[in-house]
Design goal:
7 helices, mainly alpha
Length: 161
């Protein structure tokens, strides 16, 4: 559930708008960029490295979920773009190849419930999702993916790529 700043995800308050949340995120990033890394202790910096990577994965999960919704609703068609990939690449000024992979993975992630849950909590990274999405979409291995997904996600939680 989308919630406002400082609101626990299980709370009953109304969700904030997506635009308001991206504004909160932008302000949080501004604050992060104002911190002088040379002025913090080694222990604090090490702790931040892990926390930042977890939050980076969680943000990537959110981007993937909204990307999949944008593609499914054909949000790209309004300005004549052929695909969500083309629209994102042009409007976000990104190379088409990596965007195509992100859109494909986001689409597949919608049906990969174990993978999606672990990504949302930051237990696995975008790199893990890329590998799992490739397996899910493989012509032969994909047939077996639903049966082994939970196990593979569990292994991903403990292994690095």
């Amino acid at each position: 559930m989308l919630v406002g700043p400082g609101v626990a995800s299980g709370a009953t308050t109304a969700p904030a708008s997506l635009g308001a949340l991206t504004g909160v995120l932008a302000r949080a990033i501004d604050g992060l960029l104002e911190v002088d890394s040379d002025g913090v202790s080694d222990a604090e910096l090490a702790e931040a490295m892990l926390a930042l990577r977890r939050e980076q994965a969680r943000l990537a999960a959110g981007v993937a979920e909204h990307t999949a919704a944008f593609e499914a609703r054909q949000g790209h068609a309004e300005d004549g773009s052929r695909s969500a990939t083309d629209w994102i690449a042009v409007h976000a000024r990104l190379p088409r190849g990596p965007v195509a992979g992100e859109v494909r993975d986001a689409r597949r992630l919608r049906t990969m419930l174990h993978t999606r849950a672990a990504f949302r909590t930051g237990d696995i990274s975008a790199a893990h999702v890329r590998v799992l999405a490739r397996l899910a979409g493989h012509p032969r291995a994909g047939r077996h993916f639903p049966d082994v997904q939970a196990h593979l996600v569990g292994e991903g939680r403990r292994l690095r790529l």
